[in-house]
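Q: Hi! First time doing this. I have a protein sequence and I read that you can turn it into a structure. Is that right? Here it is:
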Amino acid sequence: MSKRPTPTKPVPRPSNRLNPKTVNQFAKTVTAFGSLYNSGAIPCRLCHGSVKHTLQWNQPVETIIFDPTLIYLAEGLRESQHPYTFISREGFVELCRLPGSSERILPILTRLIPPLRTALVGCFESHVVSEP
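A: Yes, that's right. Below is the predicted 3D structure, encoded as structure tokens:
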């Protein structure tokens, strides 16, 4: 008597955890950043590299309007789920490092402080503070 092989569940690849398509878009997130990113309100997307992830902006980064993009990215600093943590942190840093960004941040500074304060008060060190 021969045994029939039992069907096995496919084993998920470890890289599936890093694939943004595996993020449940309907899952509850800490902030509205996840739904804003999924709807396209944040003008960038995550590019997976073999070693390092990068952001690819939908338009030249110099032409991005800081209000409300920078505020959305600051709110996203509270997120704890990949890819939202990476996108919010890297996007915020890239916009702040642009030449002349201080003049573009000053008009929205009063609206930028509350999300930054909230992110810093309730953050895990690994989410907000990282080596440059």
